User: What shape does this take?
Amino acid sequence: MNKLAPHLNRLAVMAPMLALTLTTTACSRYSSSGGLSIFGFIILALDVLALIDVFKQPWTTGKKILWVAIIWFLPILGLILYYLIAGRGNSNTGVV
Assistant: This one.
């Protein structure tokens, strides 16, 4: 159980953020027929991937919160800024 504790703490933080991201960002983009557009799903997927990438970075908590806020409140511009200027280093994925 000790090996799972750090992951459960992250899950407790990520689950509400993911749920709010799903409801507040790209899912609100509707096509003319009233259905969700494919563009909205693409932006949503990229937002989720960027948020997961932010949490994998070996940054301070303040920097992570700043990038999450930028991606959250500016879904398209935030993604562009994150992937262009975030200064992402090696993430903790174990891949060399």
